[in-house]
Amino acid sequence: MRVEDLPTDPIVAAWVAIVRAGNGLIAAVAADGKAAGFPPLEWYDVLWELERRSPKRGLRPYELEHGLLIAQYNVSRLVDRMCRAGYIERRPCESDARGQVLVITDKGRALRKKMWPVYFASIQRHIGSHLSADDARALCALLVRVVACRDQEERRPDEQKRR
Amino acid sequence: MRVEDLPTDPIVAAWVAIVRAGNGLIAAVAADGKAAGFPPLEWYDVLWELERRSPKRGLRPYELEHGLLIAQYNVSRLVDRMCRAGYIERRPCESDARGQVLVITDKGRALRKKMWPVYFASIQRHIGSHLSADDARALCALLVRVVACRDQEERRPDEQKRR
DNA sequence: TCAACATAGATGCAATTGCATTATACTACG
DNA sequence: CGTAGTATAATGCAATTGCATCTATGTTGA
User: Is the model's pTM score more than 0.85?
Assistant: First the structure.
């Protein structure tokens, strides 16, 4: 991708650049993970959410849904697969009989620990080798503004289509 | 998304921010398109590539593959669907009997023309209302560096896993 | 208290994607 | 030339996703 190829309207150019960079990076990092024989990138995110946000507490599926921006029916099935693989566990939820609490297993913790160095190296290679720490911070600052604002907007009116 | 939620390592934070922003924006803009009754976002990209890069020439499927970062087998089937819908056409390729040339139809041009204002407004709403033109340009400059460099790397060695 | 409505999660079915492989045509080199 | 190797595109089949709907439980208010 070169600057010259982007649309002249700076906002539209930003849209194209974000989408392209996002897709390209995800594809590259996911490919490294797969080459190492790991399950999908997504599984890492779930394991990480469960591990850090649940010292003993666990997470409700809808919290995963919101945190990772996965559709509800896909959370349901992703959790199925990860339970079947033995990386996480469903437990009944004491405060709400409709719900459940998801907990990472030892096997899940072990997998996450094994995955991280690979993904870390991949991220460093694909991003870190081309941006300084300051560049990276500047990039974050800009991106955070876009996403933070968008969230607020969408959470206000009615909230049925979240993705 | 807030800066405080990002990992402390600035490179990893950039990775998270790019992925989150990319997914979030795509979901938001795609939702607007769907609400307007349009086919998937992806179709717009194909129509646009064909329209601008083919005054009379058309594009080879593998050019779409590289340009839009879609896997070869998915290009093949995406083209099927869009042909069936009448928005594009396959034509035999004169210089290479294995291949074909894709061309946008009048119906396709009309669809793209109808889609653009909707997507443009959506992009403005989700990005433009939160970034100045200069912010947007700065963002592009940073993202382009990441992606441009990554491309070069991956095109060098052997090139089997592209997206 | 109970009816009306909202929320958590699962699921049937169709559409799409990923993976592996195939068919066909081009290219290069002995 | 002829053959080994490579590039273009398609496809069978399994896995995943999207959409619509469903069940069960929680919440609210007359």
Answer: yes
